[in-house]
Amino acid sequence: MVLFQIFMCWLLQDADWILILLEGYFCGGIINHAMTLAIHDISHNTAFGNKFPLKNRFFGMWANLPIAVPISVSFKKYHVEHHRYLGEDGLDTDVPTTFEAEFFTTSPKKLLWLSLQPFFYAFRPLIIYKKAPTDMEILNAIIQISFDLAILYFFGFKSLIYLFFGTIISMGLHPSAGHFISEHYAFKEDQETFSYYGLWNLCTFNVGYHVEHHDFPYIPGRDLPKLRSLAPDFYENLHQHTSMMAILTEFVMNPSMGPYARLKRKPRVDQEFYGNYQLFEYVEGINKNNPWKPFQTFCMQKNGTEIENRDLSRYLILLVSLLNTATLFPFFLLF
């Protein structure tokens, strides 16, 4: 899908704006939303398993490329707590804020809220649960910005807009975005999580199997239908959705539905604001068994003292920044 989107950027570089927007909605929107759900699947370490978290993070950055906005590592950071503290105020950032619940109450306002969903989804965590940035998030941003600049340099502004527009529109008024509503909005009072078993799962890595996913979050999306078939008694009697468009329509038109139709609990634990240094920990692990002594000396000593985690992380980030700057130097000559 990543390579196909690069091909589309080449194909659309001289296209009319109307075609850019149409392709962005019907083609780019479906693919880019699928890539966000690939990132969701990878965030559970389903690509390489829990033994190789860093491989999963880098693979998530690869899947992130056509989305045009660096989300992969940040999504992982918050999504873990969505599973661990489902519905808990201030911890599960998937739950709308009080402002959203109280303001977007009528059909026109709910339609506007759906249109703005990508912005609420992106910025809500930064407002209600501010976490310190990590070295991997910075690296994710560097790689993503480098890719965006490369698209701009080689294919032009229209191709970059195609990617951005596909990402934004697919998270708002688009059938792919129906899962944002279907998963946890209370269409039935005594049920908190809902599944959808329709054909749209073919475009969304089976994210519709959401009850199953919350029961077994480390099972890849491709295997969730098999899980349901192995344990039908646990899922057959639950309320389920049959149409993404019907979900969005009912959400907008039904007065009892809205951003407020979510179960919210009091938090069991306090918020944590620290940032980790996963990249440093990986390098440190390699260094322990590295036979090349000069590398050990450089990594573990600084004037006879041990380097702090944040120091080595900064060195690594600086190195990547310099490499990216050198790669993109021809682009900067244009300005």
Walkthrough of the structure:
GO terms for molecular function: sphingolipid delta-4 desaturase activity. This protein is an all-alpha fold. It folds into two domains: 2-253, no CATH class; 283-332. 58% of the residues lie in helices and 1% in strands. The chain has 17 helices and two strands. The chain has a two-stranded parallel ribbon. Helix 1 (2-11) crosses helix 9 and helix 2 (17-43) runs antiparallel to helix 3. The radius of gyration is 22 Å and the shape is globular. The model is unreliable at 293-314 and 320-335 (pLDDT under 50).
| Largest sheet, spatial ordering of strands | 1-2
Q: What global shape is seen?
A: globular
SSE succession: HHHHHHHHHHEHHEHHHHH
Q: Determine the mean pLDDT.
A: 85
Helix content: 55-70%
How many discrete structural domains?
A: 2
Q: What composes the largest sheet?
A: 2 strands, parallel
- Alpha-beta classification: mainly alpha
Number of strands: 2
Report the β-strand fraction as a percent range: under 5%
Radius of gyration: 22 Å
GO cellular component, one term: membrane
Transmembrane segments: 111-129, 141-165, 315-334
Domain Fatty acid desaturase: 17-236
Family: Belongs to the fatty acid desaturase type 1 family. DEGS subfamily.
